[in-house]
Amino acid sequence: MTSSEPQPDPFDSSVEESLLDAWFAGNKEAMSDLLSAFKPRIWSICWRTLGHYEDAADLTQDVLVKVMVGIEGFDRRAKFSTWVYRIAVNACMSHLRKQKLRRHPSLDAPASGPQEGGRTLTRGNQVPSREPGPVEGVEHEDELRALGKALETLDEEPRLLILLRDMHAVEYVQLAEIFEVPVGTIKSRLFRARAALCEEMKEQGTGER
Amino acid sequence: MTDHESHHDELLLGWVEDTLAPEDRARVEAMFASDPDLARTLESMRRHRMLVGRLVDPPVPSDLDAQVERVLARPLLSAPSPGQYRRRNRPSISMSWLRRPALAAAVVVCGLGLLAAVVMINPLRIFAPAQPPLIVRNPDAMDLFRPDVIGGGDIVGGGLRSGPFGVMPLAEDLIEPEPLALVLPLADDDDMLAMLRLLALRTDATLLVNASAADLLDPALQASSAGGGSFEPPLLLEVEGVLLGDASLVPTMDDQFVYAGLGAVWTVTITLDRFESFLQVLDEVAASRGELVLLDDHLASDDEGGWSKTIRARDRWRTWKGATGDTMIEIPVFLAEPTEAD
């Protein structure tokens, strides 16, 4: 059986809590550490949801500023990570809603990204590089690319559910708080999101191995 | 979805994520015998879960820290540097104003009938688009807001008369609420836009590029404007677009046309429960830039000659007592030469 565990979250929640304690106690540097830990995750969510490099950078910046401006009002009833993810998710959903309304060119055109070695970096053409196993090789990378493209076809909520759960190891309870629905509903939606991803992978001819 | 279906999904998800108790796992695996497709699908889900965990994002943009630090460290003490705020893929705002006379002419030549129809439907709220807004790019614009001018009988935005902005609707016909106006110094649009973005970001306000006369050419917007009415949600929210904030918190198309007719380039909307913090941030902007002017209720007829104020509009706060916190306040933003001081 293949291991189904996602990558472990590199940032322990007890560290998160102690940094938060330190910040509320007046240690300003604690915020820097907190943001350093969350910045890649916020970026990842924005990038994977928007698929447009500049928009994702703008939105990441907005989310970080919102976190820093809003932290004084953070009442700690939820985990800090839940609160941050919720800000990021709401920002992404809001951005996409507006994008649909204004018929943003990026919806009709290929996603833009930074130029690297003469090619534009987009979600679809990135070569994943996280510990590619010697056995998996090119086939593995093709499958990852197909998976990235299949994810892009999902609606934003199922896509975010899968990303938060599988890339960021967010717990069901946190997901329920982020999306403001009961845990049972989250599980049901997550399963349907996985089913939709399977269907999309099948359509791409990479669904079953 | 029934409870049974939901429970079934949870059970299968538990198998995919390997979180089931042994007896539940056995139940699921018992299903595999009679349903090989289910087995394959769930195995695929497991594999996808593993693969998603291995997706790699591009590096975090290297200038992100600097951007955030710049916004937060001394956000209001100096003008943002060029490119500090990324412009998105939309037409330049300054270009839209430069285009405006030509487009307005096109409206006159090609759309007189169309416009007449719109005006007939809603005669008091649609301005004459052939008239470029006088306040924009007008170095003497701020003089129009001086109390002595106002005291002389021209109420900005009110009265169906030939005033400084041309023919205006009567004050009582204008749409509520239109309590405030924000005047920014005539300067580089990027600079102004960056400042407004920051203001909106820090106060959860919504920043919108107003509809313009040229937008009347768009049949969809026309229908929205004519048919939506000022008391219904706008059918089509965007022209050039919401630049920041909640797309549901924007003025109706009617309002936008009125504001654009007055010469307002953007509109900031803020809910009442955020208004106090909005004013505080605005104070910071004023303290650092000394150029912003928030005009207190330019539609009021009982202004006692002192309605034109710098920044503070706390007295307006009192007038909203009893209103709910989600009451939307629309603040049209003008560009003008900052000749007004106090």
Please characterize this protein's 3D structure.
- The complex is a heterodimer of chains A (209) and B (342).
- By secondary structure, chain A is mainly α.
- Chain A has two domains: 9-107, RNA polymerase sigma factor, region 2, helix turn helix motif (Rna Polymerase Sigma Factor, Chain: A); 137-204, Winged helix-like DNA-binding domain superfamily/Winged helix DNA-binding domain (Arc Repressor Mutant, subunit A, Orthogonal Bundle).
- Helix content of chain A is 66%, strand content 2%.
- The longest helix of chain A has 23 residues, at 80-102.
- Mean pLDDT of chain A is 76; it is low at 1-8 and 102-136.
- With 342 residues, chain B is of the alpha+beta class.
- Chain B has helices at residues 3-16, 22-34, 36-52, 64-73, 93-121, 147-151, 189-203, 219-228, 253-262, 275-289, 314-319; strands at 162-163, 166-167, 180-185, 206-209, 241-244, 266-271, 293-296, 328-336.
- In chain B, the strands form two sheets. In chain B, strands 5-4-6-8-3-7 form a six-stranded mixed beta sheet, sandwiched between helices. Chain B has a two-stranded antiparallel ribbon with strand order 1-2.
- The interface between A and B is large, with 68 and 50 residues.
